[in-house]
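quick q for whoever's on today - can somebody do inverse folding on this one?? i tried earlier but teh output was garbage lol. tokens:
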């Protein structure tokens, strides 16, 4: 077989042509990324849907009045309890010893009092026969008085020790449902530390955390299977937003005639949006992006992608309802001039690949 040997200049020319071809084929880093956009529109809804938790109107934490090591737990979460039913018991050994010490001190004080009384009687006879002076007899009476006061103090300490021994048994104060149990045998608890929560029978409520700009709606309803199943009315709302989540905690009473869901159940609620500050907008579900700073969407400004922080109200498989004030600030990497309103194009797909300031091109 005959081998073909190419001259060296020919090889250099071929390599140069191949390099030029590779440069033409490689995409430029500065070329704008094509993105699919969708225009935000005002949501056609009279209410916004949020998640809430069914809670009892009255929830009472239960705790020991003394600290110690839990010896026995006699209930579980979900149990119904009645007044006087024992829930937990602490190790009583230290408290029994305290009672024994207090009782011994009380008995010693009583013995001293009996001795002082006998001394007073003897000195009274001596005083009647002028064997002692009035001053000496007064000192004897003072000794008896001091002994009597020591008996009273010892009695109080004994009563206190016996009370503390009784506090080692924790009983239910009212009838209700034990919705939470945190105490376990062997655990050392402090006085006042909650070891469970009893929900009292009766009125139920829905606890909702409202977005900061959402306001506090006065009414709404529970939504199940796409229909309203329970009317809601505002009972109380927090006086200030949470420092971390910037949400307002509110509780809504469930109408008495409506069937109440189970305690602890997470429900969907539709709250009236008359008091919402700003437009409730609808955008594609893919436009919502979360990077640890709260939900945000991306808009195009001067050919660049910019994040804008929003409040997510509701979301399904296709669309999301968001709250955006026309004067709201941008996201953590955005610009103060980046605002979102009706008709604003938002990037609908691939938002997890975007960076603030990235060059993008809107697809026609």
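ok took a stab at it. sequence:
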């Amino acid at each position: 077989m005959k081998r073909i040997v190419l001259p060296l200049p020919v090889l250099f020319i071929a390599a140069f042509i191949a390099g030029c071809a590779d440069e033409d084929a490689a995409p430029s880093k500065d070329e704008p990324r094509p993105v699919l956009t969708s225009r935000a529109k005002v949501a056609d809804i009279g209410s916004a849907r949020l998640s809430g938790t069914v809670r009892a109107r009255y929830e009472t934490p239960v705790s020991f009045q003394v600290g110690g090591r839990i010896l026995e737990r006699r209930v579980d979460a979900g149990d119904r309890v009645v007044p006087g039913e024992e829930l937990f018991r602490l190790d009583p050994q230290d408290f029994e010893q305290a009672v024994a010490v207090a009782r011994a001190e009380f008995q010693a004080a009583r013995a001293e009092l009996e001795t002082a009384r006998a001394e007073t009687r003897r000195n009274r006879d001596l005083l009647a026969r002028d064997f002692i002076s009035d001053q000496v007899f007064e000192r004897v009476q003072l000794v008896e008085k001091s002994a009597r006061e020591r008996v009273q103090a010892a009695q109080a300490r004994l009563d206190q020790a016996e009370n503390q021994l009784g506090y080692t048994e924790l009983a239910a104060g009212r009838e209700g449902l034990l919705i939470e149990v945190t105490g376990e045998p062997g655990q050392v608890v402090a006085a006042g530390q909650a070891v469970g929560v009893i929900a009292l029978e009766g009125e139920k409520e829905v606890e909702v955390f409202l977005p900061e700009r959402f306001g506090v709606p006065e009414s709404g309803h529970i939504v199940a299977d796409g229909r309203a199943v329970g009317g809601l009315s505002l009972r109380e709302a927090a006086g200030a937003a949470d420092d971390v989540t910037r949400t307002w905690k509110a509780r809504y009473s469930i109408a008495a005639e409506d069937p109440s869901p189970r305690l602890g159940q997470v429900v969907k609620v539709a709250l009236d949006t008359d008091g919402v500050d700003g437009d409730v907008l609808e955008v594609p579900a893919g436009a919502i992006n979360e990077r640890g700073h709260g939900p945000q969407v991306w808009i195009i400004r001067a050919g660049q992608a910019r994040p804008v922080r929003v409040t997510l109200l509701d979301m399904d498989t296709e669309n999301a309802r968001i709250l955006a004030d026309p004067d709201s600030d941008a996201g953590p990497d955005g610009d103060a001039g980046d605002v979102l309103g009706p008709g604003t194009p938002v990037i609908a797909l691939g938002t997890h690949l975007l960076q603030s300031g990235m060059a993008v091109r809107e697809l026609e």
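fwiw Residues 21-27, 327-332 have pLDDT under 50 and may be disordered. also Residues 33-45+278-362 form a domain with the conserved putative lor/sdh protein from methanococcus maripaludis s2 fold fold (CATH 2.40.420.20). so keep that in mind when u check it
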